[in-house]
Amino acid sequence: NLAFFGNPPRASWTQLSEVLSWQFSTFAGRGLNKDQLSMLGEKLLGQHASCSDYQVSWSKFAKENIPGKPFSFWMWLDSILELIKKHLLPVWNENYIMGFVSKEMERVLLKDREPGTFLLRFSESHLGGITFTWVEHSENGEVKFNSVEPYTKNRLSALPFADIIRDYKVISDGVVPENPLKFLYPDIPKDEAFGRLYNSQPSKVHPYIPSTLIPISEMRSNSSRTPRSCQSPEPPMTPGEFDMLSEHLCFDIDTMSSPYSE
Q1: Where is the sequence biased in composition, kind Polar residues (predicted)?
Q2: Residues 150-162: what's their mean pLDDT?
């Protein structure tokens, strides 16, 4: 019956969530937990998310665009699954990617944590993008949240995600670059969580000074409120060249502002 394939029957959110978890388990090695499925339900169903028996149409799931976005729910989810399979599998299978969490919930989770605590989530505004957000506390006690422009397959093809987390630097008002990422949410030291996932290839005898791809962001002051598009943040350099960046290298710096991008 061709009509069945052209217009599949509705399914309850309970049924659909089980299928989605199975999809991730089959193709990415780990299914979705209750919190992740709850967030997905809110994104797809909005005010009906609390109703497990709510009937979801095929059109709403796979054809209609998410409100305010140029893509459907399934297109967004499928792009994330593809990103995990090709670039994030080790980190995903360690359960280090919270993944499906809204920006609002992200702030709730991070606001009372130690400075430098960060979590990993998939972008809500980009197809196949992952970002990390960390919390900071100013001297007057103000809580600040910073999020890097999402990493997509093109950028992750150049540098493994665990290495990005290890080597990430922020330049702020000319201060020597430093890595603001200290603890994976809720309180796991970064190197304890990701240490065995770092790319630690042995050095080879080579006539040139070895270089390392270092992801860098420029922290803009609060006077600049409009986020700018991200440029490639991985210039080739050696770790010892940080204090000589302006003299020896020419590159586009990844732009970051607060409040942060999606």
Answers
A1: 220-232
A2: 92
